[in-house]
Amino acid sequence: MSSPATVHRKTWSAAPAGFFEVEAAGLRWLGEATDAGGARVVQVHGVGADHIELERLHPAAPGAAAAEGLGRGLAATHRLGAPAFGAPPTGWTGPAWIGRQPQTNDPTATWGAFYAEQRVRPFVRRALDRGHLDAAGARVVDRVCDRLAGGEFDDGTPPARIHGDLWAGNVVFVAGEAVLIDPAAHGGHGLTDLAMLHLFGCPGLERVTAAYADAADLPAGWRGLLELHQLHPLAVHAASHGPAYAAQLVQAASTYA
């Protein structure tokens, strides 16, 4: 049995059914890649309806080697793949969330259709309904979603095993390495994880990026696609945090509209 000193317990008494269980499933699914050189993921010690028990991490100053290891490891995790775009973690068939906002993980034949219909449009509708985004801005994003759903940005890349919520707060640097926490794991496009790191920043980001680019099979012109892959987190924040993110969402979408 693990001692309290080695376990971190996260609780939420009002957690909806499946909230912590899908987090545990995502961590275990991502963790399958670790032995094959994938990014290290926090270990799950236990899970219940209102809590999850995790390996206790001891943060340390981020170093160059850890940043480069994160880039290489992330590429290896992505290569392990997923059954389909939108596929949930193995063994999980229930609901999904990003942070505390619900989203779906329904397997889809193409990345563009999945990304438009399950990652961008639902949050655009929420932002619009909450008054955080106006109708004109929503139409700009919707035009990009039409292009996505129509396959214009599909590049033949197979589904990657992605973290799905990879901002700096979900990367914990410990002694000599980085550890991933709090995923919204699913089958997606690997560039989505990298794009989120670029959106919100990360210690050693250029080293992470260079190592990832060296290890991954990135599509041609990938830097020009980063804002496309940032539409989801921007839409999520527009729905939850307000008009400032909505303006950033419309600006990013304008690049592709």
TrEMBL record:
- What name appears for this protein in its UniProt entry? Fructosamine kinase family protein
Concerning InterPro entries, the annotation shows:
Fructo-/Ketosamine-3-kinase, Kinase-like_dom_sf
Question: Care to name a GO molecular-function term for this sequence?
Answer: kinase activity
Give the highest taxon in the source lineage.
Answer: Bacteria
Q: Which UniProt keywords apply?
A: Kinase, Transferase
| Keyword Transferase in record | yes
Family label: Belongs to the fructosamine kinase family.
Keyword Hydrolase listed? The answer is no
